[in-house]
Amino acid sequence: MKEVVKAEEGEVFDIELEADILEANEKLATENKELLRKHGVQAIDIMGSIGSGKTSLIEKLVQELKGKYRMAAFKGDLTTTIDAELIARHGVEVVPINTGKECHLDANLVRKALQRLDLNSLDLLFIENVGNLICPAEFSLGSEKRVVVISVTEGPYMAVKHPFIFMDADVVVINKVDLARAMEVDVRKLETDVKKINPNAKVTVMNCRSGEGVREVVKALGL
Ligand SMILES: Nc1nc2c(ncn2[C@@H]2O[C@H](COP(=O)(O)OP(=O)(O)OP(=O)(O)O)[C@@H](O)[C@H]2O)c(=O)[nH]1
Ligand SMILES: [Mg+2]
């Protein structure tokens, strides 16, 4: 094997421009957080790889927590409202957010979406990000907790290959445990990989299709 080609600073991006964008985003995220706290709303980011089970997890959480909390959701997608409609079936208010070509939500989009909700009538807000394990990590949205969903169908190296998104995660859900054997993926090894990156993360194993394991996620979120 030959030596790895590494991008130098400034080679791929204008780093100063990127720093400005991230700084502006942080400021808006802080404002979002203050607004949400003022109204007693706890926002929870749901990030994770494409198709890992983010929407399915939100659906199961909404079913599990109905009657206990008043809930709503934001759903970030490039152009569709498919997931937003799936979540809305459960009787919660959903604001779809289309990012166009962007691979992540940002605090400005969340700020706009917040204007569509009556925050006084809510306790919990789930924010499903665009599916991928890279860009969403850099953009705070103003949430209280960050969840990362990965699944065994993405293979055994999801955590070690994408460490940054796990560093700030409060809860990591390893999903599609029902398919682990067929995929020949060792769930315990994935769990260990996540713990090595972030020893403070609570790691739970789930089947978001059946709902098995949802109570552990609820507990890990302190709900
Ligand atoms: N077998 C199995 N299928 C699952 C599980 N969780 C989700 N799925 C299926 O996986 C597919 C993708 O699930 P979604 O919940 O849409 O995943 P997502 O992360 O929201 O996907 P994007 O928003 O498109 O990135 C759907 O067909 C789900 O029914 C699981 O635990 N086991
Ligand atoms: Mg989804």
Question: What are the defining features of this structure?
Answer:
binds magnesium ion, single chain, Rossmann fold, alpha/beta, binds guanosine-5'-triphosphate, 37% helix, 223 residues, globular, 7-stranded parallel β-sheet, 9 helices
The helix/strand class is: alpha/beta
What is the string of SSEs from the N terminus onward?
A: HEHEHEHEEHHEHHEH
CATH class category = Alpha Beta
Question: What is the H level of CATH, i.e. the homologous superfamily?
Answer: P-loop containing nucleotide triphosphate hydrolases
N- and C-termini, Cα separation: 49 Å
Q: Total helix count? A: 9
Q: Any idea how many domains?
A: 1
Radius of gyration: 17 Å
Q: Please name the CATH topology.
A: Rossmann fold
Taking pLDDT < 50 over at least 5 consecutive residues as the criterion, the unreliable ranges are none
What share of the residues lie within helices? 25-40%
Sheet bearing the most strands, described? 7 strands, parallel
Shape: globular
Strand order within the widest beta sheet: 3-2-4-1-5-6-7
Outline:
The protein is an alpha/beta fold and 223 residues long. The chain has helices spanning 15-38, 54-65, 82-88, 107-114, 158-161, 163-167, 180-183, 187-197, 214-220, and strands spanning 42-48, 71-77, 93-98, 124-128, 145-151, 171-175, 202-205.
Describe this structure in words.
The protein has one domain (15-220): Rossmann fold. Helix 2 crosses helix 9 (214-220). Strands 3-2-4-1-5-6-7 form a 7-stranded parallel beta sheet, sandwiched between helices. The chain contains 9 helices and 7 strands. By secondary structure, the chain is an alpha/beta fold. It is globular. The chain has helices at 15-38, 54-65, 82-88, 107-114, 158-161, 163-167, 180-183, 187-197, 214-220; strands at residues 42-48, 71-77, 93-98, 124-128, 145-151, 171-175, 202-205. The longest helix has 24 residues, at 15-38. The chain binds guanosine-5'-triphosphate and magnesium ion. Magnesium ion (MG) binds at residues 54-55, 83, 128.
